[in-house]
Specification:
The structure is a single chain. This protein is mainly alpha-helical. 60% of the residues lie in helices and 4% in strands. The strands form two sheets. It has a two-stranded antiparallel ribbon with strand order 1-2. Strands 3-4 form a two-stranded antiparallel ribbon. A hairpin with a 5-residue loop joins strand 3 and strand 4.
Length: 193
């Protein structure tokens, strides 16, 4: 008997809905982390990347709630960003009774103890993601490319929005707007499964 193959049968619209309806969850998780270098907005941005990866890998037919499935991806993206920039192990709030997610019966302790989270081959995944990102980024205008490449550390050292703003002579908020606009463009270019 063949093992069940991975099957993400959601269309682009369903994936987009999962992303938008779970951004509040990303914000909740990001606020549990403390970083001297990354702002809460930066942590939310990193968590959003983890959320998008989770949406791509989520198989609704397996019956696992999406928030349970996505939590490890979101946490890993945030923790990797903190570690990459500071070399420190991320500090997370220990308020394990804090409700997270849309149904409020899922606590931070449940998130921390999710032993069923998938273990992806991180290096292979990162290389494939980088190749796809470079191809997609080439479709952006010059200023959007500059912001995205620096923010995600593609061909440059990874930088915070404040550092990018200083380098480009723009305010941090303007860099955030450019990044968000570029991310929307990249999301539209992403092929639907």
């Amino acid at each position: 008997m063949q093992p069940k193959q991975y099957d993400n049968s959601m269309n682009k619209e369903e994936k987009d809905t999962l992303i938008t309806s779970n951004m509040g969850y990303v914000v909740t998780l990001a606020r549990q982390y403390k970083s001297d270098i990354l702002s809460t907005d930066d942590l939310i941005g990193e968590g959003s990347i983890g959320l998008m990866k989770a949406v791509e890998k989520f198989d609704p037919s397996r019956g696992k709630p999406f928030v349970t499935f996505a939590a490890p991806y979101i946490r890993k993206a945030i923790e990797d960003a903190i570690t990459r920039l500071t070399g420190d192990i991320p500090v997370m709030s220990t308020d394990e009774s804090l409700p997270v997610g849309s149904n409020n019966n899922f606590t931070l302790l449940n998130v921390l103890e999710d032993k069923d989270s998938p273990k992806a081959d991180h290096a292979v995944e990162q290389n494939a993601l980088s190749d796809r990102m470079l191809e997609a980024i080439s479709m952006l205008d010059e200023r959007e490319q500059a912001v995205i490449k620096r923010f995600f550390g593609i061909e440059y050292e990874r930088m915070t929005m404040a550092e990018i703003g200083e380098e480009m002579g723009l305010k941090r908020e303007r860099i955030r707007q450019i990044r968000d606009k570029a991310m929307r463009k990249l999301k539209k270019q992403a092929p639907s499964a």
